[in-house]
Write a structure and sequence with these properties.
Layout: H1 4-13, E1 17-22, E2 25-30, E3 33-37, E4 44-48, H2 51-60, E5 65-66, E6 76-80, H3 87-101, H4 104-109
Antiparallel strand pairs: 1-2, 2-3, 3-4, 4-6, 5-6
Helix pairs in contact: 1-3
Length: 119
């Protein structure tokens, strides 16, 4: 089961990523733009997710994903670390969120990062 240290290690391994405390919690940013947070007691992560995909995720796996009330109007979703299937799934989720926040120059430099393995 991934934990907060796994989140930190994997997030910081992504290109041009930094950690910054905001709202009394760790946040992870690519080129200054936030793509993941470790809210509350660090048992979950909040990541970027297009609203249409987010709703499908929550419906398909409600034990794993949910939408925090104060984030409902934004394209973010929460994921319970304990419900993830391991580090690979955590890495996929973080890399996908990283892609949504990364500037074009990084997407061009790392074209495969965050894309499905078969895609």
């Amino acid at each position: 089961m991934p934990d907060a240290e796994d989140v930190r290690r994997i997030a910081l391994s992504l290109p041009d990523t930094t950690e910054k405390t905001a709202w009394s919690m760790p946040t992870f940013r690519v080129a200054g733009k936030m793509f993941a947070t470790l809210p509350e007691d660090e048992t979950s992560i909040a990541v970027r997710c297009p609203k249409e995909e987010r709703d499908e995720l929550v419906l398909a796996e409600p034990e794993k994903f949910w939408i925090a009330g104060h984030e409902a109007q934004f394209a973010w979703v929460r994921a319970r670390l304990a419900a993830l299937e391991g580090e690979d799934e955590l890495r996929d989720i973080l890399a996908d969120s990283w892609r949504q926040a990364a500037p074009a120059r990084l997407l061009e430099a790392y074209p495969r990062l965050g894309l499905p393995a078969g895609g």
